[in-house]
Amino acid sequence: MLAYYIFKIYVYWVILLKRMKPEETVDYNVKVCWHAIARMYNLQAAKFDITTSIGFVLLNIHPQEGTPATKIAPKMGLEARSLTRILKSMEEDGLIYKVGDAVDKRSVRIFLTEKGLEKKELARQTVRIFNQKVREQIPEADLAIFFKVIGQINNLVDGKEIYK
Q1: For 25, how many CA atoms within 13 A lie in the half-sphere containing its CB?
Q2: Helix %, strand %, coil % for the chain, to 5?
């Protein structure tokens, strides 16, 4: 929620000081598009009695080998604290179970239960269908440009080149 308010303040700053309309800013368009996608995924996830966050976690757990808990949060761009709450909820719902590492006693590996595997498949199909529909509507050349540009923006942000 804090990120939302920071985003709003930033958008207002851009509008007031730069005289840019929100729809002319990169971040506004990325945020609006992501919110629309997230709402769509949330509606679909609710049909399967999970949340979008749980669906994304399920997609990041290896179905046979499990996944170290410490590897999941970075894959999803989450803070470890947020993931801990999600994993606790998933364990209570019978979607996952945890196994301590025999070699490294500090490490925990997350495995999917049968129920977790079923929900993972539903999440996988949801993502696949969305991407298939996008690819049916948007030419590959346009998607290639989109992926190139969004990658460049991500590199700018990750490289901390914007605010030195």
Answers
A1: 18
A2: 70, 5, 25
